[in-house]
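Input record (one chain):
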Amino acid sequence: MIIKKSKAEIEAMKEAGRISALVLREVGLHVRAGVSTLELDELAETIIRAEGGIPAFKGYGGFPGSICASVNDQIVHGIPSANVVLKDGDILSVDTGATVDGWVGDNAWTYPVGKISAEKQRLLEVTERCMWAGLDAARPGNRLGDIGHAVQSIAEAAGFGVVREYVGHGIGRDMHEDPNVPNFGRKHTGVKLEVGMVLAIEPMVNVGTYKTRVMPDGWLVCTRDGLPSAHFEKTVAITEDGPLILTTEEGHERPV
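The corresponding structure, as predicted from the sequence alone:
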């Protein structure tokens, strides 16, 4: 069941979104060679709690971290670890969120570590463009397939693969609500988008195949062919005036 939010509820979600955006940006500023993903996770939790939030990921389904930290060919759900130390040339996908007054904000970004290859740089640029295109399609009267088509068309035009098994989702008082939001699809198909729906739109794009594999810890998902992957995400409300990004900080946002 899709739970639509009132204007007041969307307004209430903005604080969780603000903290989620703040912590993602601050973690990104500390992404550098020699830093472990556990250090970044501890930083994220400290900031979230200092801002009055609760780490939305910690304990969710048993997940141990406040961020998902996924390096290079790792797509999503990487568990932060002192043994995973970033090195020059890596890319790191950070997914994190905060809960405030029962409302959840969820966002992700992929950061370069030092100087990265031209291929990885292009992957980051294309995947970010995919995210903005998906957000722009989150308008009343469109359908879920319009979001997926917007993402897929950009990614595949660049020669990249779009992950099928892992998708965006509705969000509100629960991290994952209906509907699922695939990053692939056909225009004018799927659930009709209506005012009050709130979605986490999160393209996961691979340099090579879209196929994935789950690692033995049961969490980490990697590309089947070992080639790099990127992940970008924002929480967006569908309003009468179009998409309203909720995971945002004043002065640090690009409008849709």
